[in-house]
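Researcher: Can you fold this with nicotinamide-adenine-dinucleotide in place?
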Amino acid sequence: MGLGVPCSVVAIGLDTTPESSSLANHRGGPLIVAQSCWCGSVVGCLLAGKGPSPLIVLWPFQRTIHFEVDRAFANSMCPRQAASYTIFMVSCLLRLYFWLFCKVIYTFVPFSKYILPLPFPTTMSAPIRVLVTGAAGQIGYSIVLQIAKGDVFGPNQKVTLVLLDIPAFATPLEGVKLELIDCALPTLAGVEAVTTEAEAFHDIDYAFLIGAMPRKEGMERKDLLAANVKIFKSQGLALAKYAKPSVKILVVGNPANTNALIAAKYAAGKVPLENFSAMTRLDHNRAAAQVALKVGVPVENVKNVIIWGNHSSTQFPDVAHAKVLKNGQEVDAVGAINDTAYLQGDFISTVQKRGAVIIEKRKLSSAMSAAKAAVDHIRTWHVGTKPGEFVSMAVASDGSYGIPKGLIFSFPVTIENGKWSIVQGLKIDEFAQGKINATTKELEDERTDALEACGESKQ
Ligand SMILES: NC(=O)c1ccc[n+]([C@@H]2O[C@H](COP(=O)([O-])OP(=O)(O)OC[C@H]3O[C@@H](n4cnc5c(N)ncnc54)[C@H](O)[C@@H]3O)[C@@H](O)[C@H]2O)c1
């Protein structure tokens, strides 16, 4: 693997703790550590050097280089993935040393910078156009800053934010635009506040379709459906007319799955079905957080929970395939929780009813957590899933797990190069099948009602 060390499994960490070194020792591989400062590296050496695992410390300099590698991620890698990450890290460091070498030469050798150019370009990528609908609403207000400052597309990608709301909200929308300008963000190329679909959907690369009537206390999803589905018919047509065919769409506005189905139907022919998705990432995050609380580990130590089906109270939050990193060991969440009654009862209902509980307490629907989940959803779609990890995303069914083709159904997915794939071959027991059948039935009924509301007798 280029380092001349025997390697069965490798632990890579941004820091060195007794836990990560004992994990490397347990797995019999070397511990590779990228430290963010000299002091941390010395401490790391002292800690990790106590075990039998070989230790390789990479010596970067403070704030010069940033590795997006965390311990839970590292621990989930197979040897091949670990080897490629190691090569990546070493190549970054070689570039860093070359850059420092160039800086020294420039200082002491006249005209050398014309002969030896610096290897790190500082330019940002050309701006992408990102639409947020319902941008004057509460999720909109929470999400626009996160998109504008690089939480979704990274610190080197400029974005032009296009904010859409209804004409009645033009003035507050203008206020949001002014605040974004005042944030003075290097990643924000421009902000457009608009009230027509023609302006909003023109040439966009990504769409966060949030704008809709929110669910109020005691309101049934069926009432919402009739009110909201027509908005998504109109936006589907606008996508077909004005957007780039490569545009990627996240529907947040409820009923999210069925709204996405309708938007996709009316954008067909221009925007492919696989570019549409609806948000169940909030439910996914809620499920992971509940597992973390129950097991007593940080939430980043929980992976592969699944939300099956609809973003509604029939969704099935499933931990049968989830993993938990506990005391340095990756174990099954079911085993770590060891409480079937809880997993088949309170756990499911807590996640299913969380939205309603928040409405009851705040008198408003979830906004901060919904905005964060939408950021997570598109960021994962943009950068891909980590090795060994899957996330929940409502996408068009291809018939997997017996779900009728074309329904926008939440599945476990992996993402590579901007393309999602439904995780195949997971074992579904009788209990899970019953839950999946119930949420499928609800989505089929919603589809019938939605098509009717759009003036279509059948699909
Ligand atoms: N999928 C999820 O996990 C999830 C979670 C939370 C909320 N939601 C849903 O997200 C939606 C927005 O929630 P919110 O709390 O921000 O509501 P909000 O009422 O605060 O904001 C909605 C905004 O959408 C605007 N709007 C309405 N129709 C529009 C249209 N045709 N075009 C553009 N904008 C339009 C409204 O004027 C308003 O500013 C709701 O449908 C809510 O139920 C989904």
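Model: Folded with nicotinamide-adenine-dinucleotide in place. Confidence is low (pLDDT under 50) at residues 1-31, 35-71.
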